[in-house]
Specification:
Blueprint: H1 3-7, H2 11-22, E1 26-30, H3 37-52, E2 56-61, E3 79-80, H4 85-94, E4 97-101, H5 113-118, E5 122-127, E6 139-142, H6 149-158, H7 172-185, H8 195-206, H9 211-219, H10 224-236, E7 238-240, E8 245-250, H11 252-257, E9 280-286, E10 291-298, H12 304-311, E11 315-316, E12 320-326, H13 336-350
Parallel strand pairs: 1-2, 1-4, 2-3, 4-5, 5-6, 8-9
Antiparallel strand pairs: 7-8, 9-10, 10-12, 11-12
Helix pairs in contact: 3-6, 3-7, 6-7, 7-8, 7-9
Bound molecules: guanosine-5'-monophosphate (5GP) and manganese (II) ion.
Manganese (II) ion binds near residues 38, 102, 149 and 185.
Length: about 350
Amino acid sequence: MNQNRMRIVSESDAAALHGIIAGSSVITVVSHTHPDGDAVGSCLAFRSFLRQQGKDAEVVLPDSPGEVLMFLEGAETMTIASENREKAAERFSSSDLLVCLDFNKADRTGCLEEEVDSFRGHKVMIDHHLSPDRESFGLVISRCGISSTAELLYWVLMALPETCGDASRLPHDAAEALMTGMTTDTNNFANSVYPSTLMMASDLLEAGVDRDRIISMIFNRHRENRLRAMGWLLKDEMTITENGVAYMILTSDTVRRFGLKDGDTEGFVNLPLAIGKVRMSILVKADGDRGFRISIRSKEGTSANSCAKTYFNGGGHELAAGGRLRCPEDIPATDRVSAAAYIEKVTAEFFR
Ligand code: 5GP
Ligand code: MN
């Protein structure tokens, strides 16, 4: 086997995980709120692998993913806590192992935070975000210089004796889910692509993953409204500050006007980065009367993570982060004027 493949996950981490799985029978796999392709793909892939080993494995998510991701095999059998609190709570209390994928702290799991925090069995984290909360987890496999949790999980699985580094030994649906997670988190190989990422993609293609189908499922199956809203936002609603910060505000009126659903705005935040003078892009999206959800993307040399942490109660990766604007703690009202004033003020301070 190529030596590089062995270096991503240490033998001791692989052995520790193998031992924990072997000693567990009821396993729950969990991920973050507003689960994206990486979260859902990683969870479904790991569940499928565990079931192949004869384990009782289930996925519990805090809330449902966008419709676009529901093509993944088995997606409809995940437990969504916001829709079925009792079932989610029962699953947590009957599990002896909790596998936490694609998040670095329990508070990223929204309504499941308490269950994740107080879980008494083995707790494993496999994740690629900065600053993992190591104290709260028994085993932490965390890498930042990697495309996605799906990729990290791929290398974890390759390091286990069940696969011996052979991707064709993965269940087919797991291979497809891993390819999907990596593809969405890299924005189809546009960012955070490393030699190991291409190696993973190459292995999975060789193992029979149908990438063309995945691409058309993820990128070419949107509702018309999504593109109409995108066009309108870019044309009429994008502001660029003198520091090169582009921001777009999606109020609840806009969401209603275009009939936007969760997931419909995925990727909008990346678009303004195509403009040369834009260093950072911020998408502000109404989140009921609690305030706004924030997505931030930046170019090399500007830290989206530090901006999200300092001003938006959030965090993430160096160039892709997110957070929240809370009303009334951060802004006096949940309207466009308040959000715009806050962004103008804090980004001027950020670049001072
Ligand atoms: P997105 O903009 O796609 O929602 O999120 C981009 C990145 O920021 C993801 O890696 C996500 O995990 C992280 N992120 C999004 N929202 C939050 C948040 O509220 N808190 C933290 N700590 N990270 C977030
Ligand atoms: Mn991710």
